[in-house]
Structures are given as C-alpha cells and as structure tokens.
Amino acid sequence: MKTKNVWKKIAGMGLVLMLSATALAGCGGAKLEGGTASTGAGAAAGTGTLAKIKERDKFVVGVKYDLNLFGLKDPASGNVEGFDIDIAKAIAKKVLGDENKIELKEVTSKTRIPMLKNGEIDAIIATMTITEDRKKEVDFSDVYFLAGQSLLVKKDSSINGLKDLQKGMKVLTAKGSTSAKNIRASAPDVEVLEFENYAEAFTALKAGQGDALTTDNALLYGMAKQDPNYRVTEETFTEEPYGIAINKGDAEFVKAVNDLLKEMKENGEYDKIYEKWIGEKPKK
Length: 284
Description:
It contains eleven helices and 15 strands. By secondary structure, the chain is α/β, with parallel strands linked by helices. The radius of gyration is 27 Å and the shape is globular. The N and C termini lie far apart (94 Å). The relative contact order is 0.14. Residues 1-45 have low confidence and may be disordered.
C-alpha cells in the first residue's frame, strides 16, 4: 500500500509539473503568424505612432488655427481649413481609409513640440520649418512645402525689403518661431516684438504697434488676403522648408508619411492641394 501511495504522489507531482510548464509556455509567448512564438522584443513591437493611430481609429494632429491658407478656424462654423489640414486628411485617408477619421488640436510655435512629446498629438503639421536644433527633439518627414521669410507691410509703406528696415523700427512676429531668430540676425538694428501667435501679431500691426510683420511669405500671403490694405514684399531672405514633425525615433511612421508624400506628388494630388490654397502650381 505504501508503495502504491508513493507512486501516486510521484505521478501527481509529474502532472503538476507538466501543467506548470504548459502555463509558463503560454505566458512566455503567444503564437505569431507562421507558428513562431513571440519574444519580449516582438511583444513590444507595434507600439509606435502608426499602431496607436490604427488602434484608436483616429489621427490626432497638431495644426495652427490662426493662419489663413494653411490652418484657419472659421469662428462661425468651427471648421479648420487650409493646406496643412488637407495634408493631414490625406494621411488619415491613407492610414485609416477615411479622411474624416481625424482630430485637429490647436498648436502654436511654442506649444507644438511639447504637445508632441507628451503624447497629446501624433504629429505636427503646422508650417514647421525643419532646423538642425529641432531635429534634436523630433524627427521630420521630407519637405512638404518650401517657403521663404519675408515682410508684411502697409500698402503705402516705403519698406520693400531688409535694406529699408531702419534703426528704431519695430518688426512683429510670433514667439518660438524661427522668424524671430532670423530677423534679429538679418536686421540687428530693429526692435523685435514677439506675440503668442501670428493672429495677435497681425492685430498689433494693424493697430500701429509696428512697422512690419515677418514670417514665411506663404503665411503672409494669407494675411494680405484677409486685409487688402497690406502687401507682402517680394524679397525673401531665408529658405523655410516645412516638414511634418514626428516623435523622435519613430522611423516606421516617418517612412509611412514620406511614402505618402511621394505618392501624392507622383499622382498629382499634391499639386491640386497646392494650387487650391496658394493659387498657383508648385515650382518644379
């Protein structure tokens, strides 16, 4: 009897060990397609921006609300429209199959990188110039729009370019923008006044608080379109390549966006968006 009991105990222990091994195998890695068990690295994969967008079924993007032609909110309808918005819709359509699966969040030149880094948005499409300093914080897509910094002045102003900016004059721009840095370097004798956004800067210009407003010419054309009493000087004194900002190290999403931009330029969709908002076809 004792011998039988011993063998029963041994058999029972063996069964427990088999069940434990099976459970551990189940925890250690689920089967992937092709029958290979996933490793820890494989389980961590798919947590990039592209996967998050698909899981959420919505593309959350940071855009400007105050820039005519690129991102401007209609106070009556609440809709935000512009060049950047159409690019964002194209990404949503490519990734999710529907351009309306998109959520627009307002950013400024000052808030856009922090909002991206803390996960509030998936990408920045907000007239953001690609710079070496910014590349230290975020990754960029290929250039999707090439602008140049210029000046917005009253129609009867004697200012036609940098050479006409005299000591004591005031030039307005937005906080955190490359425009502020560029104008200080290009016209060191002028006083630079920075505002929270370009809408505030334009309001200040119309109120007589400055002699000129500076940013990329593409944005200035939008302001001049809003108020025909102002004009954009022909001279540009920088090249401002706009890129879509993506979280640092997310190579998969950068590639997906670059592939889409290339596709849009090849099939003519990009040219249609450009002409719709800028009024002419892009220069090749």
